[in-house]
Amino acid sequence: MKLIGEAVDKVRRAETKSRPELKGSRYLWLKNDANLTAAQKTARGSLAKANLKTARAWAMRLAFQDIYKERSRGWAEVMFDRWCSWARRSRLEPMKAVAGTLRRHAEGILAWFDSRIANGLIEGINSLVQAAKAKARGYRSLRNLKAITYLVAGKLQLKLPT
Known about the structure:
The chain has helices at about 1-15, 25-30, 40-50, 55-65, 75-90, 95-105, 105-115, 120-135, 140-155. It is mainly alpha-helical. α4 (about 55-65) packs antiparallel against α5.
């Protein structure tokens, strides 16, 4: 989603040069509806009807988010392929580039539908382990590193009985 958001912003920046009404509308296109005020929703709605390239890129962003609402990997794969095809035919260079990147990483993206595990959880645990390593300034053995990793990442509460 980060790559798609950046692509929408690149399309908006390029189009702002010829369409001054887009000036100052960055966050209207990058935020989800739940995070917009009523005035912002109205402003984006009127801009979205103006036949803008940015509006097409935004619609692609919303369509990609809908892929994650699918329950099965099979349907998600079909929607993912359709989305990539749409992005490649869109004549919006940033979206075409994102489609190529996502296509190269399709197996990892679609693996989420099997495991429902996002990369953020793993990255969070990794940061805890790295912080523990830095705090200790190294460990004498791999066994000790594994033990502190389980201790820190497992969030164990080790309190003495009182």
